[in-house]
Amino acid sequence: MALLSKFRRRPTFFARPAACFRLAAAAASGLLLAAAFPPLERSFLAWFALVPLGAAVRGEDLRSAARLGFLSGAVFWLFTLPWLSKVTVVGYSLLALYCALYFVPPALFAARWPRNPAGPIWLSNLGLMIGWSALWTACEFVRGSLFTGFPWNPLGVSQYRNTVLIQSAAWGGVWTVSALVAWVNAAAIATLERYRAAARAAPGARRLQPHPELMLAFFAVAGAFLHGYRAILALPAPNASIRVALIQPAIPQNVKWDEAFVETVYERLRAHTELALKAARPELAIWPETAAPDDLRRSETAYRLVHELTSGGTPLLVGALDAAVDDAGRPTYFNSAFLIGRNGAILETYDKQHLVLFGEYIPFGDRFPILRRLTPVAVDVAPGRSATVFRGVRADAPFAALICFEDVFPYLARRFARAGARWFVNQTNDAWYDFSSGSRQHLANAVFRCVETRRPMARAANTGITAWIDVAGRLRAEIPNYTPDGGLAAGFLGAEVLLPPVDAPPTPYVRHGEAFAAAACATAAVFLLWALRRAAGSLEWRP
């Protein structure tokens, strides 16, 4: 009875209003941030979405701060990645929870940065702003690099439609835009801290006070806009272009590899390509990723079709599987792009380098066959090793192919730009994620590769968003993913892709790569360690 009485007297979680408020605030940050990305695309929310989380963790112990940060991240990723559940529910859940871990370090930092500094509060708040924005940027960069990387939807991508603002990506990649948005959030968190301090010092007092934190945020955003306008006006005028036809066959994923529908797939490719060749008169026609449902080198049907379509002299870039067979007859498969010249000759090929973990290969899949039951992967695909730059269409218009989600990796686009590519082609198949926000999020991430490198991009999607993007990150033309009645949109897009001058100087990002992200990582480490060490005397790790 004594034990029961003690249990009854113990306050329940829901009897602690402050704890409930903090949980609600952390969850609200996740929801607000998710709403800034597709499908809702309320990008203005990103500028203050993290404020509830930052305010909730201030002064909390490490365990509570970690829980709140993880909760906020889990809400964000579970509401941002539901399109992945169409492929694998287990993978969607595990990936969302893994990515949520990257919300924890900023939460720990905000919790332990001194609330009652001995010096001026503005100096402490400035440290909070620098440390928070650096740590947030560093976490995004590490997430995009560690374990093959998942750089999907960094904070800066929420602003992909704000063409002027995102021009700073040419200096340090998308991470510069993320740092700016995080900086504004940190300024709002610091301002709330100033209000709290004033309220504790003089309860009930109401007087206007200067807030240098908000002014620093304002000047940073104003500077980014000013730089963006000047950068766009200073872009060298394009002195060349290339006409392309982007084919969107809209083959549903559930029939794409069904032998009963092979002829249907080929007929649809034939019909759209023939119409595009007549109407757009392109210099290059482009099929999406794995458009041909066969091994192109060994399929008589596939070869006959591409031979027929290229007989008029227009090259065709074909997405298809390739296979290399060893002496024992064992095939190794590649996700490839083939440049087909006149009469079906294969001029150049590129094998996809950055593969989708659990999407194109399963680590230890041979040792643990049960893993294959969790994903739709039937056979593993091997990564390519060379950064092919295609020069067989026009010598003055070399291009690089980014297959599937390779266009979300800044380092790959930079590598191709340094190798001489003057423009990019993205071949993708987003049919895995039909009737979801996955395709729009994919496009939003791709925009930044154009700004970072000052290279335009032509995107050919099976289903998804076929489009072309200019060097400033503007969407110049697109085929929507869906028809007005809710079906999959099929057709082609003829586009005159404007090319940057051959002698245009490389962007700072192309020259220096991840220097900004590395600096953010170093700054974040210093501020996080300093905050934890300074607060070590008062740290409590309560269960």
Overall description:
The structure is a single chain. The chain is of the alpha/beta class. It folds into two domains: 244 residues; 264 residues, Nitrilase/N-carbamoyl-D-aminoacid amidohydrolase (4-Layer Sandwich). It is built from 17 helices and eleven strands. The strands form two sheets. Strands 5-4-3-2-1-11 form a six-stranded mixed β-sheet. The chain has a five-stranded mixed β-sheet with strand order 6-7-8-9-10, covered by helices on one side. Helix 13 links the parallel strand 2 and strand 3.
Give a nutshell description of this structure:
The protein has 17 helices and eleven strands. The strands form two sheets. Strands 5-4-3-2-1-11 form a six-stranded mixed beta sheet. Strands 6-7-8-9-10 form a five-stranded mixed beta sheet, covered by helices on one side. The chain is 43% helix and 13% strand.
Largest sheet properties = 6 strands, mixed
Q: In the CATH hierarchy, what is the superfamily of the largest domain?
A: Carbon-nitrogen hydrolase
CATH class of the largest domain: Alpha Beta
Mean pLDDT figure: 89
Strand arrangement across the biggest beta sheet? 5-4-3-2-1-11
Individual helix count: 17
Taken from the alpha-carbon principal axes, the silhouette is: globular
Distance between the termini: 26 Å
Number of domains: 2
Low-confidence stretches: 537-543
Structural class: alpha/beta
Question: What features would you highlight for this structure?
Answer:
six-stranded mixed beta sheet; 11 strands; five-stranded mixed beta sheet; disordered C terminus; Nitrilase/N-carbamoyl-D-aminoacid amidohydrolase; alpha/beta; 43% helix; single chain; 543 residues
